[in-house]
Amino acid sequence: MQPPDDVQTPDQVDALVQLSFAVQLVLTRVAAEHDLSVTQLRMLGILRDRTPTMAQIAAYLELDRSSVSGLVDRAERRGLVARRPSETDARVTLVEATDRGFAVGAQIAAAVTRGIQSLLEGSPAPDIEAVVRIAARAIRTAG
In the predicted model, is pLDDT for residue 37 greater than 70? Predict the structure, then answer.
């Protein structure tokens, strides 16, 4: 696939890569403040509004099922998530956030919001709106 005509220069590509690094740093710092990995942080984000199967978590995080099993084990030991059997398929295990997991997730969401806001501080609203539109389009393209 050819890159769009308006993103051709190394400086443009570098700026986008540097932005992704800055966002990743925010996530890494917030995760560390809660003694979590970025992957654990992402899992809690997934569990905010759904109760997925282990297989769905693996797909969302692009991990193999054995990695997800360990990820859930560690979060379960910390009281952040709980496993429960599916009511419709005994072979399926669902994962849900516990009350503690939801509380930690809310703290993480607030901290990530503050971190992203600090990255955009001083940017005019139209520029921020443009970044959001570009990010949404890139996410849709990535699938």
Answer: yes
* pTM metric for this prediction: 0.85
**Cα distance between residue 30 and residue 112, in whole Å:** 7
Using DSSP's 3-state secondary structure scheme, residue 79 falls into: coil
DSSP 3: P
User: What tens digit of pLDDT does each residue of 58-99 get?
Assistant: 999 999 989 999 999 999 999 999 999 999 998 999 999 999
DSSP β-bridge partners for residue 40: none
Q: Tell me if 37 sits within 8 A of 31, measured CB to CB.
A: yes
Tally of residues, the chain: 143
One CATH from 2.50.20.10, 1.10.10.10, 1.10.3210.10, 3.10.310.10 for 19-142: 1.10.10.10
